[in-house]
């Protein structure tokens, strides 16, 4: 397990943490936030505990079709991004074991 501490304005830290969570090699376990007032702007300290998986991880994306069929897509380095509430984009690398 690794411990990462990030300091700065929350508007800059939040996108960084979102990018960190999207990486398939990094599993974000917990984060703790501590606020400190400095001058007129508010700085935040965020401490994160992560597991770094150095090898490529294959995850399976399941798609449920309207007709009830379930499609499994094994993908390496799967990245999930929520572009708006309830709308997500998935990206990854597919492979062919017979190719």
TrEMBL record:
Domain of life: Bacteria
Protein's name in the database: Uncharacterized protein
Organism: Laceyella putida
